[in-house]
Amino acid sequence: MEQTPKLRFDKVDMVFFRPNQPPVQVLKSISFDVGAGEFVCLLGPSGCGKSTILNIAAGLIRPSAGTVTAGSRLVTGPGWDRGVVFQEYALFPWLTVRENVVLGAKSGAGKVDHVRFDHFLGVTTGMYAHKDKLPKELSGGMKQRAAIARTLANDPEIILMDEPFGALDPYTREALQDQLVEIWSASRKTIMFVTHSVEEAAYLAGVVILLKAHPGELKAVIRNETRWPRERASEELIGIERAIRRVERT
Ligand SMILES: Nc1ncnc2c1ncn2[C@@H]1O[C@H](COP(=O)(O)OP(=O)(O)OP(=O)(O)O)[C@@H](O)[C@H]1O
Question: Looking at the DSSP assignment, which residues form a beta bridge with residue 16?
Answer without folding.
Answer: 24
